[in-house]
Write a structure and sequence with these properties.
Elements lengths: L2 H20 L3 H6 L38 E2 L6 E4 L5 E6 L9 E7 L4 E7 L6 E6 L12 E8 L2 E9 L4 H9 L2 H10 L3 H19 L4 H10 L3 H8 L9 H12 L13
Parallel strand pairs: 2-8
Antiparallel strand pairs: 1-3, 3-6, 4-5, 4-7, 7-8
Length: 268
């Protein structure tokens, strides 16, 4: 048995011991589930939106226009970010025809154009993103901007405000696991970072878990604060999603009263 395998097995054992110490009754509650499925989730994402609002346009997915799409924005229509070049998110309810260009326009509060570009999205249905390129003007702290996507005769818009990152958040981010970063961003109302990191985290973990052994999966769960998944595997629940906690994070975000996208957007 090589050193790597020994370390992985020791890490898996450490996960089980730590989980039992922190929540000694949790494994038993999972094992006693009469439905054959785990029935207890750890704390999931709770997004805290800013108190202020702004006009916006997300629409619904009922149109038959082949260019139809949604903007992923809070119901307040303004989302906060702490970065100079954030990522904006769209939802395509159906695959797009070939060679359909999108236009992105960023305006300041006086409706002066700050940045404009034309780009193409992947044509597959689902969640898609557009990031402000590094050579575009950076968002200034304390200022609000209106952004608009145009495709065919459809347009969607929202607002973004850049805020200063609080020093205490920066300190916590230095040592936070990936999922803890998502929870921190959500707690402090940073919409763009929350959504962007949640998408990236889910994709990364699915890739890591694809061909992982039990010991390796337990280590991945431990590193990313996915206690529910670790206990479910150790309790013998084979039918659960490998990322049930992150699925719950998605549901929490979509069902939040300040988002109102439940039933429209599915997890990627």
């Amino acid at each position: 048995m090589n050193v790597t395998k020994l370390l992985l097995q020791q890490a898996a054992l450490n996960v089980l011991v730590a989980l039992t110490m922190v929540q000694p009754g949790l494994a038993a509650m999972l094992a006693d589930s009469s439905s054959g499925e785990p029935n207890l989730l750890p704390q999931v994402l709770a997004y805290e939106p800013p108190a202020r609002g702004a006009p916006g346009d997300r629409k619904d997915a009922g149109s038959r226009d082949p260019h139809n799409f949604l903007a992923l924005i809070p119901a307040t229509n303004i989302g906060l970010t702490a970065i100079a070049h954030p990522t904006f998110w769209l939802y395509l309810p159906a695959s797009l025809p070939d060679n359909i260009p999108f236009e992105f326009v960023l305006r300041d509060e006086q409706q002066e154009v700050v940045f404009r570009t034309v780009f193409e999205l992947e044509k597959a249905a689902g969640i898609a993103s557009f990031s402000l390129p590094p050579n575009s003007p950076p968002l200034e702290i304390g200022k609000k901007y209106q952004w608009c996507f145009f495709c065919g005769n459809i347009s969607r818009q929202g607002w973004v405000e850049r805020v200063a990152m609080k020093p205490e958040i920066l300190v916590q981010l230095e040592t936070a696991a990936l999922r803890q970063r998502v929870l921190l961003f959500a707690k402090h109302g940073l919409w763009y970072e929350t959504l962007t990191e949640l998408v990236a985290l889910r994709g990364k973990l699915l890739s890591q878990l694809h061909a992982a052994t039990l010991e390796e999966r337990l280590l991945i769960y431990a590193e990313n604060d996915l206690r529910y998944e670790a206990l479910a595997e150790l309790s013998g629940f084979e039918k659960i999603s490998s990322l049930a906690t992150l699925d719950a994070d998605w549901e929490a975000l979509w069902e939040h009263p300040f988002v109102r996208l439940h039933g429209i957007v599915s997890p990627p």
